[in-house]
Amino acid sequence: PATPDRLLNQLAALPCGNTVSETPETLVPPSNVVAPEDWPRPQQTIPLDPAPTPPAFSLAWRMGVSIPSADPFAFDWQIPRPGWYLNWSTEERASRPLADLRMEFTPMVRLRPEGLVPDILTLYAQARQNPGRIWFIGNEPDVRWQDDAPPDEYACYYRQAHQVIKLADPTAQVAIGGISQVTPLRLRYLD
Fold it and tell me: Are 116 and 122 in contact (CB under 8 A)?
C-alpha cells in the first residue's frame, strides 16, 4: 500500500494551476480600486454571555457566518448564535478557546496558480489535528479577484484538497466553494 508521504507527493505533482479565468471583464473591479491588504483589527474583544451549542440540525446549527476580522470574539453575538463561522483561511485566530463561543470554525482552503493555500503538507497536518471538521475548498473560483480558477482547474484543486483531507481525516467533510452568480458559465463548475 502507498504511504501518506508518497500519496501526498503524487497529489502535489498534479498540474492544476496557471490558466486564465473566463470571468467576464464586467465583473473585474476598475483599476483604481485597491483592495486592503488586511481588514482592520478590533482593539478589544467583547465579553459574551454563555450560550448553549445549537442543537444538531437546528436552523442555528446549519447557519454560518463569514468573519472578516481574524477574531470572532470581537463581535457582540446574540443568542442563539450561528453554528459555525469561517474567516477565508484554514487558521483559527480566536483570542480565546472556541468552546467559549459555542460556534465551530470551518476552514477554507484557497486556490492560487502556484497551488493550494495552505500547501498540501500543511493542509494534511491541519486536517489530522482537527478531525471531523467541514472544509470548504475555494472561494468564488469564478471571480478573478477571488480564487480565479476555471472549472477544470477548480476540479483538479478540489481533487487534491479532498484527497489530502480525507487521507488525514476520514471523518472530515469536504465541501465545494461557492460561486458568485448562477450563469451558464458558472454552472460548468457543477458539472
Answer: no
Q: For residue 159, give the amino acid letter.
A: R
CA 147, chain centre distance (Å): 11
| Whether 123 contacts 116, CB under 8 Å | yes
Burial of 13 (0-12, 13-18, 19+ CB in 10 A): exposed
Tens-place pLDDT, residues 4-45? 787 788 877 777 765 545 545 444 444 454 444 554 555 556
Give the C-alpha distances (Å, rounded to integers) separating 171 from 53, 131, 132, 134, 150: 21, 7, 5, 9, 29
What strands, in cross-sheet order, belong to the sheet with 134-137?
A: 115-117, 108-112, 134-137, 173-176
Q: Find where cell 476580522 sits.
A: 69
Highest-confidence segment of 49-53, 66-70, 123-127:
123-127
Look at residues 25, 11, 54 and name the one whose alpha carbon lies nearest to residue 161.
11
pLDDT digit string, tens, across residues 150-163? 888 888 999 999 99
Beta strand 115-117 with 108-112: parallel, antiparallel or unpaired? antiparallel
Does residue 131 have a cis bond before it (omega within 30 degrees)? no
Burial (Cβ within 10 Å: 0-12, 13-18, ≥19) of residue 183: exposed
